[in-house]
Amino acid sequence: MLTALFEGIGFGLVAAAVIALGAVGLSLQLSVTNYINFAYGDLMALGAYFVYAINGGLHVNFFVAGLLGAIATAIVFVLLNIFVLRPFVRSGARVITLLVVTIGISFIVQNLVILIWGTGAYQYSVQVGNAFHIGPFVFTPGDLIIILISGGLLFGLQAFLQYTKLGKALRATSNNPDLAMSSGINTDLVVNITWAISGFFAAIAGVALAIEENNLRPLEGFNELLIIFSAIILGGIGRQTGALLGALVIGIATSIAAMVLPPAYNAVIAFAILILFLLVRPQGIFAGREVAD
Amino acid sequence: MVYFLLDLAVLGSITAIMLVGLNLQYGVTGLINFTFYTFVAVGAYMTAVTMMGKPAAVYATGPLAEQYILQWSLPWPIALFIGGISAAILGLFVVLVAVRRLRSDYLAIVTVAVGFIVYNVINNAVQLFDGANGLFDIPQIANLATEPYSLYLILVSVILLAVCMWVSHRIYHSPAGRVLRVIREDTIVARTFGKNVQLFQIIVFVISSFMAGISGGLLVFYVGAWSPAAFLPTESFLLIAALIIGGNGNHWGALIGSFVILEGLAELTRLLPNSISASAVGPIRAILIGVGLILFLRFRPQGILPESLLKPYKPRRIPRQAAAVPVPNANVAGNVPNIAGTAAVDPAAEEAQ
After folding, report:
1. Does B241 touch chain A (CB under 8 A)?
2. pLDDT tens, B254-292?
């Protein structure tokens, strides 16, 4: 029983690494632009398919393909911001209009992916390797690589936000866009960079998810998005460390629950936790201040 | 052709009921709901299980066994009402979770979450509504031998649509409707005027969930079967797109949206060139709807029938004051306000003509 529990926690750590990648990318963009990108999940899937196409079609090394695919996704994010979302923001559209726009983008991207790659499942041509034991946990080398990459990227992002000039500009814009602009920060550029980072993380999260689940489907991102939302809300919107802790809670909780309940209830568990938290502590676990209306 | 029109009339009316409900939420009050179709589905399931009785002997046991809760055989109007009430109860739960001093976009997430939970639970818990197989063999509401079924159902759905339109009309033009529009534009303003924003939001959400439930019940009368494949997230998105393109905030726009956008587009895709494979038609249609939605939001956010066509304030018949413009060479009596209500006309000017 205890062994099974530790195995569950081990799977949970991998799941949490994937969720954290997605959650940090989505949460960063949300904290800067102040609206949720409902297309994020489908764009995650798009990024994963990019990597699949580059790796399988052009026979490029998997890690290089991952990098190229992530950069391509980042470019897609920036183009979406410039040509679709920014005009709405400039014309003073309400937040709920922007939400509908992003869900429209989600609909378009999802169906584009189905149109190009079909509804069948794909697999990357990488070997995840044989499982081995580390203490009480069971991992495959693929799992470890996911955890390492996720940890490395999150650490890198944190360092970028904390110590570089651009990172500080980004945090300033997130905090108060008007003040940032009047301090001479090019907020348009900052917002574009935010979207690029968000897209980069989305693609990596999509690839990691496809490796974790061992197949790549058009709807994988859309379903994962809901779990990512739970992690973000749990941690408090716009907090990178909060998103990380939220991802850990959701990842481990769903993995342990998956041992008792059928895996189809995974997202249901995540949402049950989410709704419970919304009822008890709507501002998230770690948020100290009131959330704005 | 006749059958096609009958089909269009029934499905169009049922969709219009959904859109009138969604319009009350999104168009009038500004409450976003990404899973409106889940409420339709709950209404459909509850209507079905309260009217279809025990499964037929063929489906009672064996591999085709159909299992579901309640198994009542109530008359259809009561079953329909129960369907509406069930959807309204789910709506009450959702809105109570979401409106507790949260950001407006939390409601969007909570609706997506609830839609996902309901879908997965119904899909996997076979005892509830027969899981992924869904309910089938649901009795039709009229005797097919004596009455053409569709005509009877058209009558029922058109009458219910008219009732929903009337309710929506009365809400829109009432003082409460004005409060709802203020909430849509700015909740802080509404709060400043001492309005209980949450109470208004809860009431609207519950009323329109009830409408969704009713439309689900009607749909189940018409198609005679219901399963999880019938309420994928796509359906809710199509409703939002139809509402925005038809005319957000205007219940006549909702009518246009249901008949023209949803039903018309389904027919139009049959005109696509034959070279496109059948499996590509669905995604292409979805992409076109998505692009159309974004273009409309960008360049004509008011939709085909803008809300401004509704005249919220009827000018009341108050005796008007005479024109305040001093008329030269007029005697004093000419400028006295005319009590009868018509504007005073200078006799001299009249003579000049």
Report:
1. yes
2. 888 888 777 777 666 666 666 667 777 788 888 888 898
Domain positions in chain A are 2-280
Q: How far apart are CA B298 and CA B293, in angstroms?
A: 9
Cα B82 to Cα B306: distance, rounded to the nearest angstrom: 34
* A261-275, B71-85, B224-238: least confident range: A261-275
Mean pLDDT of B329-335: 47
**Considering only CB atoms, which chain B residues are within 8 Å of A284?**
none
Q: Which residues of A touch B32 (CB under 8 A)?
A: 96, 99-100
Q: What pLDDT, on the 0 to 100 scale, is given for residue B91?
A: 95
Yes or no: say if A237 and A229 are a contact pair by the CB < 8 Å rule. no
- Chain A CB within 8 Å of residue B244 CB: yes
Residue of B nearest to A261 (CA): B124
CA angle A104, A120, A44 (to 5 degrees): 40
Reported pTM: 0.84
Nearest to B100 among A36, A226, A282 (CB): A282
Contact B208, B24 (CB under 8 A): yes
CATH code for the domain defined by A2-280: 1.10.3470
| pLDDT, average across residues B238-246 | 89
Interface of B with A in 126-185 (CB under 8 A): none
Q: Does B101 touch chain A (CB under 8 A)?
A: yes
CB contact under 8 A, B187 and A293: yes
Local confidence band at B316 (pLDDT 50, 70, 90 cut-offs): low
Q: Is A96 in contact with B104 (Cβ distance < 8 A)? A: yes
Model ipTM? 0.86
Contact assignment for A115 to B301 by CB distance below 8 Å: no
Q: How far is A278 from chain B (nearest CA, A)?
A: 7
The pLDDT assigned to B62 comes to 64
> What's the burial of B250, exposed, middle or buried (CB within 10 Å: 0-12/13-18/19+)?
buried
The pLDDT tens digits of the residues spanning A213-230 come to 888 888 888 888 888 988
- Tell me the CA distances in angstroms from A10 to A133, A209, B54, B155, one per residue in order: 10, 16, 47, 60
Q: What is the token pair recorded at B66?
A: 């159909």
User: CA–CA separation, A291 vs B102, rounded Å?
Assistant: 7
Preferred mutation among A266, A268, A280 to probe B, highest tally of B CBs within 10 A: A268
